[in-house]
Amino acid sequence: MNPNTFLCYNNNIKDHTLLSFSVTKKSKKVKARYKYRIYPNHIQITKLNQLFGCCRFVWNQSLAHCNQLYVNSQNQPSYVDLTKQFITQAKKELLWLKEVASTPLQQSLKDLDQAYKNLFNSCTGKRKGIKVKPPRFKSRKSRQTARFVGANYKIGQDKIYLPKVGKIKIVWSRPKPRQPSSLTIIRDSANRYFASFVVENCAEHLAKTNNSIGIDLGISTFATLSNGEKFESPKPLKKNLKKLAKFQRKFAKTKPGSKRRERRKLRVAKLHAKIKDIRTEFLHKLSTDLVRKYDTIVLEDLNVSGMVKNRKLAKAISDLGWRQFRTLTEAKCEKYGREFKVINRWEPTSQKCSCCGFKGGKKELNVREWTCLNCGAFHDRDINAAVNILKVVQPITKVETIETKVLDNPVQLSLFNEVAEGQPETEQKRTRSRRKSSPKKDASGNDVSTRLESFEQLRLFD
Ligand SMILES: [Zn+2]
After folding, report:
1. Alpha carbon 31 to chain centroid, angstroms
2. How far is the CA of 266 from the centre of ligand 1 (A)?
3. CA–CA separation, 217 and 302 (whole Å)
């Protein structure tokens, strides 16, 4: 069984510590990935580049071979066959393959083998989720990795030893990993080097707090909790957009192959890395905070990949990192023995009154606050949705809404009228769209008309 693997960074992003959890349900073992920054010297950089190059060469050659066999409709070679042909045999002809450690070469062929297994399992339906794409050729220009396993490498006081590379300076930004099962050396596109260890631990259970929380994710406010708390996203891309555009414009003006081009390319990559780090740090802090405070965390299942297809919203949505937030929260819940739940995306969380359950119809995105026609409760749109999200999982929960007020001023009254007038129309539309989508639901099983769905989802956010 393939364990689900989640990637996430540590709270303090300056550590460049990456955590990844992989949870197997039977044993409740949690795999964590810890990432530390390493500082190789000039000679070591050359040796590492050589190692990355050899791994890439072995991968690309094997992939080309597999593709050729596929075209000739021959059987896929096994891992052992590939190793014989592209490592043992190749070393006799290509002497430079001997200059690097052999474990990373074998590991890259293992990865290729796994990539094909995933592809075939996805095609035959054994593997669920998004369709797996065939493995691709690796490029010299993108992120580079090489993996060491077993007793191949050694961990020292402030250095790590890699075979045929030497002792590389490492900064232990968090406690040293205990008995790691593998070590991956990474070079990212901003030319930073990292050592990433995989460690298997048992899940640790935090003390119960007897609190549950529903979370509504949005664009203007990143997360609204059912207790009324709101969290703003740092929106790093939006803040650096002008700078990024300038850097990219300057990069585009340079001559291909020139040194200036390389420099400017690196500048763009560094800015991208910075943007990503700011976003990840925020998501880590928020998810850790929530997992510490609450026993049960409830989120809405958002069709993010569908929503990103809307070109007007794509940039804003991608800047937030909703999906990453969900992945991180889910992984941390597993790690700390908390409950994580996701509710159906068809649940009318923004339409219902959280006090009496009256369905007030669909609301335009600019309606941030509204009053229930049935009970007169005054709602903040996001908080009301968050409360409804929690209520789907725990219907009996008594929820204290802070924002509940009785309407008494003219501004609210005018809003009241708008909602009241708009209601019959939206009701009609809703029944129409339901009629349209219901036969499709039956025909194709679980895969429902995604277009309609994503459109409805879009309307929940501005
Ligand atoms: Zn109500």
Report:
1. 17
2. 56
3. 9
Environment class of residue 392 by beta-carbon count within 10 Å: exposed (0-12), middle (13-18) or buried (19+)? middle
Told to judge if 380 belongs to the known catalytic residues of this protein, a careful annotator would answer: no
- Known catalytic membership, residue 382: yes
CA distance 44 to 159: 13
What is the distance between the alpha carbons of residues 426 and 350, in angstroms, rounded to a whole number?
14
Catalytic residue, chosen from 281, 334, 380, 382, is 382
262 is catalytic: no
Q: What is the pLDDT of residues 141-172, one digit of tens each?
A: 889 999 999 888 999 999 999 999 999 999 99
Q: What does the DSSP 8-state code read for residue 254?
A: S
Domain ranges of the chain: 5-202, 212-393, 399-459
Distances from the Cα of 254 to the Cαs of 69, 242, 247, 355, in angstroms?
41, 19, 11, 61
Instruction: Point out which residues pair with 199 in neighbouring strands.
Output: 32
Q: Which of 188, 216, 334, 380 is catalytic?
A: 216
Residue 455, Cβ density class (10 Å: 0-12 exposed, 13-18 middle, ≥19 buried): middle
Residue identified by tokens 């006090």 is: 355
Sorted by sequence, the CB contacts under 8 Å of residue 246 that are 6+ apart come out as none
Could you report the per-residue pLDDT of 381-392, keeping only the tens digit for each? 889 889 988 988
What tens digit of pLDDT does each residue of 183-235 get?
999 999 999 999 999 998 888 888 888 889 999 998 889 999 999 999 999 99
132 CA to centre of ligand 1 in angstroms: 45
Per-residue model confidence as pLDDT tens digits over 317-369? 889 999 999 999 999 998 888 999 998 888 888 888 888 888 877 877 778 88
Q: How far is CA 434 from the centre of its chain?
A: 32
Describe the crossing of helices 450-458 and 410-444 by its angle, rounded to 10 degrees. Answer: 160
Chain mean position to CA 83: 33
- Joined together, the tokens standing for residue 248 give 């990219």
Query: Shortest CA distance to 10 belongs to which of 19, 1, 2?
Result: 19
Return the ∠ at Cα 308 (arms to 302 and 313), rounded to 5°: 105
Query: In which element (H, E) is residue 208 found?
Result: none
SS3 assignment, position 38: strand
Q: Which residue in 113, 188, 281, 300 is the catalytic one? A: 300
Q: What sign for the dihedral angle of Cα 117, 118, 123, 125?
A: positive
* pLDDT at res. 311: 85
- pTM, 2 dp: 0.73
Query: What per-residue string of b and e applies to 49-58 under the rule 16 or more CB within 10 Å gives b?
Result: eebbebbbbb
